[in-house]
Design a protein that fits this description.
One of its GO terms (cellular component) is cytoplasm. The chain is of the alpha/beta class and about 220 residues long. It is built from ten helices and five strands, in the order βαβαααβααβαααβα.
């Protein structure tokens, strides 16, 4: 059984890369719940006053947390498993929103208690952590370009630039210094177009297979 999570900044192509991996490994892919998520557009478009009153950042992180936990449990019944973003990254997003004052200290403590309880429950399962995180890394310019290209209306407001930067600036450090759940394969999305270039896609698949072979997982 192989469990892979695809992580990285908003806009860098996690869903597309996860789809490519799923096809290669003949696995179902457990996607981040974006389409049909009623809270997500409100998180991006609400005024600071509405955010304060309605607590959309906290509600969104709780929603992502419960859906991620559900996906992990579902994924464990498959021989190969690909997940679009990890439950560990959810904590990073919640922490950044706490640092920005969008999630209160009390809310963040509650979030961490819920996460700890979920992780304790995962300890009882045959596999509680991924084998590999594929981390999509890119410059801030690439992140902003990709967000613009995919054209989700609620992501395009210029005022969101500071929020995207706050997420991006410490993401590499968090992955390299704090993330300990699995091995990490870094894919530089400034240099590779895994989605649109057949050559880059083949190189990417080869890199993944090479890592999994070294880990005796394929």
């Amino acid at each position: 059984m192989v469990m892979i999570v695809v992580g990285g900044m908003i806009g860098l192509g996690k869903t597309s890369v996860a789809t490519i991996l799923g096809e290669h490994l003949k696995s179902d892919v457990f996607f981040e719940k974006v389409e049909g998520n009623d809270i997500l557009p409100l998180f991006y478009t609400a005024s600071p006053e509405e955010q304060e009153a309605k607590r959309y950042p906290f509600l969104l992180q709780l929603d992502f947390l419960q859906s991620r936990f559900k996906d992990i449990k579902r994924a464990l019944v498959h021989p190969h498993n690909v997940l679009d973003r990890s439950i560990y990254e959810d904590w990073y997003f919640a922490k950044v929103n706490n640092d920005l004052g969008r999630i209160s200290d009390i809310e963040f403590k509650l979030y961490e208690k819920l996460l700890d309880n979920m992780m304790e429950e995962l300890d009882e399962l045959p596999k509680k952590a991924p084998d590999l995180m594929i981390y999509l890394q890119g410059s801030f310019e690439t992140v902003m370009s990709r967000i613009a290209e995919r054209g989700r209306d609620f992501e395009q407001d210029d005022e969101l630039c500071d929020y995207y930067y706050a997420l991006w600036k410490d993401y590499d450090q968090w992955v390299m210094e704090q993330y300990k759940a699995s091995e990490v394969l870094i894919i530089n999305m400034d240099e590779m177009d895994v989605v649109n270039s057949k050559e880059d896609r083949e190189t990417f698949i080869h890199q993944v297979d090479e890592v999994l072979t070294k880990m005796n997982l394929i």
